[in-house]
Design brief:
- The complex is a heterodimer of chains A (86) and B (205).
- Chain A has two helices and no strands.
- With 86 residues, chain A is mostly helical.
- Chain B has 205 residues and is mainly α.
- Chain B starts with a helix and ends in a 40-residue tail after the last helix.
- The mean pLDDT of chain B is 77.
- The chains are: A mainly alpha (86), B mainly alpha (205).
Chain lengths: 86, 205
């Protein structure tokens, strides 16, 4: 009978606090991850939205091509009009 | 049942209840995490899809810009000469002359003349066309330099009509036009042909 009581005391004094401590730690950490995941979610959504304007790069590409083309034509004319330095 | 057994059972049940509470709470937290990560993964996939053509486009833009830089650098060096070209670049962007031109590795060691102190920005271009600047002394056209270096910025005034350089107090006013103008012209019969005005006293037939 004494052994049973000792077992009960060990269970109540040692096992229960340890189990509660460990489970509480796991739950606390799991709940701590949730806000971080929310922030990652918001950042990824904002990043995706920012890239909506990436399609405008096609316009930039065309504008650059036309600008360089114009500069090349202008440079060709200058090459004919102006004397070389040497 | 002995009292110790009852206490044992109660303790085990309590432990199970605690386990259930904490494990269920943990499951809910993990479900929230899973849902959040699913959304984040969806957004990241969008980012990947949207940024996929960026490299190709930016590479193309850079190629075009590289070609433009090669063209303009080559033209500037060809027409102005290395020294003046470096001086012009350094005058417009102080310090840039030390970096030199990309396609002329030795250009960085060229000592840049202080062109910006002598010429206005547009004058260097005109200098290649005539003898308005000292730089034109080396021009194939030859001839004496017409530009006064100390008063370099004033020399550009000679490009304007002589009347304006005398700084008259009053310049002739612009002609008055419109319905109330003192001189009225009748509309022409056809473009470019003005209707002959009737002869007045004192004028020839």
């Amino acid at each position: 009978m004494t052994v049973w009581w000792i077992g009960d005391i060990v269970l109540i004094v040692v096992v229960v606090p340890v189990v509660i401590y460990l489970l509480n730690g796991v739950l606390k950490e799991a709940r701590g991850i949730v806000p971080s995941v929310r922030q990652i979610e918001a950042a990824a959504a904002a990043g995706s939205k920012d890239l909506d304007s990436a399609a405008l790069l096609l316009t930039t590409q065309e504008q650059v091509r036309q600008t360089i083309e114009t500069a090349a034509n202008y440079g060709g004319s200058l090459d004919v009009i102006l004397d070389d330095a040497t | 049942m002995p009292a110790a057994g009852v206490v044992l059972i109660i303790t085990v049940v309590a432990i199970v209840l605690v386990l259930v509470y904490y494990l269920v709470s943990t499951i809910f937290a993990l479900r929230q995490i899973t849902a959040g990560l699913d959304d984040a993964i969806g957004a990241v996939v969008e980012i990947i899809e949207k940024s996929k053509p960026v490299e190709e486009i930016v590479t193309s833009i850079n190629m075009n810009l590289d070609a433009g830089v090669d063209l303009l650098e080559g033209l500037l060096v060809k027409k102005a000469g290395m020294v003046d070209a470096i001086g012009l670049v350094d005058g417009l962007y102080p310090g840039a002359g030390a970096e030199g031109f990309r396609n002329f590795p030795d250009s960085g060691s060229t000592k840049a003349p202080r062109i910006s102190e002598v010429y206005t920005k547009g004058t260097l271009t005109l200098a290649r066309l005539g003898r308005e600047a000292p730089i034109a002394a080396a021009s194939p056209g030859g001839g004496a330099v017409l530009r006064n270096v100390p008063g370099g910025s004033l020399a550009a005034r000679s490009l304007y009509p002589e009347v304006r350089q005398t700084h008259p107090e009053r310049m002739p006013r612009s002609p008055v036009i419109g319905a109330d103008s003192p001189v009225q012209y009748e509309p022409s019969d056809e473009p470019g042909v003005r209707r002959r005005r009737p002869a007045t006293n004192g004028e020839g037939a």
